[in-house]
Specification:
Length: 146
């Protein structure tokens, strides 16, 4: 049986405040399927709120501490401010997200990895995902305990 070649760039996006075992499952999936992984910590401008109690710097530090052996060239973690507010999810958000990834890597993701939240299907126009596969993990398979 031949192995499936690794994709070049996997992208995982979320608020990750705090990081949970479910988030770690998403990160591990990307690291196993892709040569490089970019974890985008969303709502980067938020801190000290009910939904975003931790600063983006703290959220990034906690994720990095989970993967101390992974070099930056293989695991990149960065923040991304909300376009308007965290509930404004539409295809403009998808274009904003895609543009930020392309600015950093000169290309978009080969693979997007996320839980099957209903709103994720509204992030991208179909043409914005050309050449990008999606790996969706059922929420029931993502433990939320820290």
């Amino acid at each position: 049986m031949s192995s499936i070649p690794k994709r070049d760039l996997g992208v995982v996006i979320g608020r990750f405040g705090p990081e949970t075992l479910g988030h770690t499952m998403l990160f591990d999936t990307s690291l196993s399927l892709c040569r490089r992984t970019f974890i985008i910590v969303g709502s980067a401008q938020e801190r000290g709120t009910l939904r975003n109690p931790l600063s983006v710097e703290t959220r990034i530090k906690l994720i990095r501490e989970t993967y101390p052996e992974e070099p930056e060239s293989r695991l990149t973690i960065g923040g991304l401010n909300d376009m308007t507010n965290e509930l404004d999810i539409n295809v403009d958000w998808g274009k904003y997200l895609k543009s930020n990834v392309e600015n950093r890597f000169s290309k978009f993701a080969s693979l997007m990895i996320y839980g099957n939240d209903e709103f994720r299907s509204k992030w991208f126009a179909p043409e914005d995902l050309k050449g990008t596969d999606e790996y969706i993990i059922a929420r029931s398979n993502l433990p939320i305990e820290v």
